[in-house]
Amino acid sequence: MTKPSALVVDDEPDICELLAITLERMGIAADTCGDVRSAQQKLGANDYDICLTDMRLPDGDGLELVQWIQNQALKTPVAVITAHGNVETAVKALKYGAFDFISKPVDLDDLRKLVGSALRLTDTASPDESIIGESDAMNTVRRMVTKVARSQAPVFISGESGTGKELVARMIHEQGSRRTEAFVPVNCGAIPTELMESEFFGHKKGSFTGALSDKQGLFESAEGGTLFLDEIADLPLPMQVKLLRVVQEKKVRPIGGTEEQAVDVRILSASHKDLAALVTNGQFREDLYYRINVIELKVPPLRNRGNDVFLLTNAILGRLAKDMGIALPVLDSNARNKLAAYRFPGNVRELENALERAVTMCEADIITEVDLQVTNPDVAEADDIASDLGDKLETMERDAIVKALESTRYNKTAAAKKLGMTLRSLRYRIQKLGIE
Fold first, then answer.
1. What share of the chain is helix, strand, coil (3-state, %, to 5)?
2. CB 367 within 8 Å of CB 330
3. What totals of helices (H) and strands (E) does the chain contain, helices first?
4. pTM for the complete prediction?
């Protein structure tokens, strides 16, 4: 089996030698050079599995080499070695297409982790087709996912509620070098403010009332993998400060702990809110914004995805039929026309909820326009619809089922009859909605 190979670019012979020895001990054939021109010649003549370059070189800098590699469409992942604390340069390198960065003096353990991640990229993952759609907008998303998955750069995923931002984050994780490690999603808006620091960074036994044992934080849970911070705009400003420090230093300190712990985690984040506007209004820290938004990936709303709505409908109905143990329902022509004309302010999540209700209420496995229960408001009114429409409809449905159960003394057969649905459908909805 051929040994993997690496190119080390640094004009200091001692550093080149140290890095080369470290790589050789990892079973990697190391080649070295001291300037941009020599590096370009070697990269043009050899297929390296990784390139490590210093930022300051006699005839240019590492950013030039990163850009040259991107322009030449080389598959070699390149990591830059930056001066300690020079985060701005590191972020710029990531924007230009660098795989990752490491600070001087080089920590050899960190170097081994970085190189290991880069080498796993050569074992290419199969493209993830979990996102359904053939529209130009979704094909653009897929291309972006493939591109950013090869990097360790923080990615901010923007888009309206219900568009599938977490699904996109999972695709990035599953196509990247960390795909064999944990993907840890967290809804920042769902964590009580007083528990945030403990949830993110963990705590030591006895550090506060109720801390009966050590607790591992989310960063440690995601060690080696990906931490997805959904609705990051909901973080309060004091927590934003703490998060910024972890993103920059790659270290956490549990509550009550005396030592910092190094963490190796890729940060992906998302929000349906306009972060740039929140920065302008002083509601989101500008420095954190630029750290998490090295690359932005926009997920389009369903109304801009054309016939994707029918591809999604077929997939959702197939899943529902399987979960409920029923024949595959079909849409009649009026129902199809209704879906084609509807704006879906709640996006894919609203489509899922509408189809679940329709499957529950339809007769003879035929979904009609009435079963769908969707009506387009005026365009001006549609723009004002709350992004959590799907959640509100789900709450209404849960309340109706609970009332029916209570009025029948929890006799599910009688409750199903009262609601005008089959017993099997009621059981499915009870499980789906988490009703005790």
1. 50, 15, 35
2. yes
3. 20, 16
4. 0.79
Q: What is the DSSP letter of 215?
A: B
Q: Which residue type occupies 107? A: D
Angle at 137 between CA 134 and CA 141, to 5 degrees: 95
* Residues 6 or more apart whose Cβ sits within 8 Å of residue 53: 8, 9, 10, 39, 62, 65, 66, 78, 79, 80, 81
d(CA 74, CA 77): 8
- Read off the tokens for 326: 């029923």
Tens digits of residue pLDDT in 71-112: 888 889 999 998 766 778 888 898 888 999 988 888 898 899
Distance CA 222, CA 264 (A): 8
Q: Which of 10-14, 210-214, 250-254, 266-270 has the lowest mean pLDDT?
A: 210-214
Residue 59 tokens read as 């005839």
pLDDT of residue 211: 80
What is the number of other CB atoms lying within 10 angstroms of the CB of residue 141? 23
